């Protein structure tokens, strides 16, 4: 009877051993895939952080450019208003106004020399 038990148990044992080997190999494959996926997640997080930082910098630049555009628009509106009200004559553009002229010195056409005799 013990031979009969061994004859029925032994094939089940070998079948179970083969399944265990297969499952251990499958486990190793899945663990490696898991490690690979963790590395991909880490890389994606790093890229995501970098893109978020770049996006924040771009938003700051857009805000600065928007503010500069608004400032220039207000300046243009003010100059147009001054032209229309006669406060700024067309012949005296902002770049030729006394404020924007270099200081008068010798030979300056803005201030003729007087020669003492």
TrEMBL record:
InterPro entries: MTUS1/CCDC69. Keywords: Coiled coil. GO terms for cellular component: cytoplasm; nucleus. Residues 93-109 have a biased composition (Low complexity). Residues 20-82 form a coiled coil. One of its GO terms (molecular function) is microtubule binding. Residues 83-117 are annotated as: Disordered. PANTHER family: MICROTUBULE-ASSOCIATED TUMOR SUPPRESSOR CANDIDATE 2, TOUCAN, ISOFORM A. This is Microtubule associated scaffold protein 2. It comes from Neolamprologus brichardi (Fairy cichlid).
């Amino acid at each position: 009877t013990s031979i009969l038990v061994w004859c029925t148990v032994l094939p089940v044992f070998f079948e179970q051993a083969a399944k265990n080997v297969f499952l251990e190999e499958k486990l190793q494959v899945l663990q490696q895939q898991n490690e690979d996926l963790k590395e991909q997640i880490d890389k994606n997080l790093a890229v995501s952080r970098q893109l978020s930082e770049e996006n924040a910098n771009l938003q700051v630049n857009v805000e600065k450019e928007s503010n500069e555009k608004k400032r220039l628009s207000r300046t243009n509106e003010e100059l147009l208003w001054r032209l229309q009200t006669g406060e700024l004559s067309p012949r005296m553009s902002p770049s030729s106004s006394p404020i924007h002229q270099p200081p008068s010195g010798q030979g300056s056409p803005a201030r003729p020399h007087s020669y003492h005799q």
